[in-house]
User: What shape does this take?
Amino acid sequence: MTHTRVLIVEDELIAAEFLKEILQNEGMDVIGIVDTGEEAIRTAVAQKPDIVLMDIMLRDHISGSEAAVEISRKIETEIIFLTAYSDPEMIDYAVESQAAGYLSKPYNETEIIATLRLALARKRKKPSHDLQDRQTPPSTVSLVDGYLFHTVHQRLLKEGKEVELGPKALKLIGLLCQHPDISVSNEQIMLHVWGEPVNDKTLRSLMFRIRSATSENLIKNISGSGYMICSHL
Assistant: This one.
C-alpha cells in the first residue's frame, strides 16, 4: 500500500493520531488530519487523496455523511466511514456517496488494514474518468415532463437543475428507472429502499414527498401491481 495518499477526517485527535501511525507503518502517505466537514471537502478536492477516512460526527455544521456525499460528487476517491454506531440513515449516506465501507470504533488495527486493502482493490478496478466525463454521466434515463435521471450518480434533474431529494427517494427512483414503464411491486420497493418490509403508510408517505417535489405524472400507482416511472417516449 506504499504511496497511497490518505486524508483523515476525525474530530478526536488521539484517535486521528492512532490512525495516522497505523497508516504510516503500512507505508501510506497521510496528507492531512482535519476535523470539520468544510475542511474535509476543501482538502479532499484540492489534494485528491486515494482514500478518505471520514468520521460521521465533526466539529462544524457539516456532518461527515454530508461531506462524503459532496466529495464523491467532485472527485474520484474511496471513502471509508468512521463511526461508533450504524443506523439506517448512515447506511443511506454510505450508499449515496458510494462508500467503500465503514470502520467501527474503537478501532481495530487488523480491521483497518483489511478495509483499506479492499478499498484500494476496488479503486484499481474502477475505470478512470476525467473531469469532463464526470460532468457528463454516461447513462441517463429520459422521463416525462422534462425530467432526467442519472443512473450512475443517482441524481434527478429538471431542465438541467438537480431536484433536491433525500437518499431514500433517490433509491426508489433509481430502482424504478431500471425498468421504465414497467411496474415494480410494493414488496420489491420496500426491500430495495428500506432493506425490509415496511407498512404501506411509510411507502405512501415517501411517494407523496417525491410527487410534491416533482410531478404527479412522474410515478404512477398501478392498482394491485405497484408503482411505475414514466419515460419520455
In short: DSSP finds nine helices and eleven strands in the chain. The CA atoms of residues 6 and 30 lie 5 Å apart.
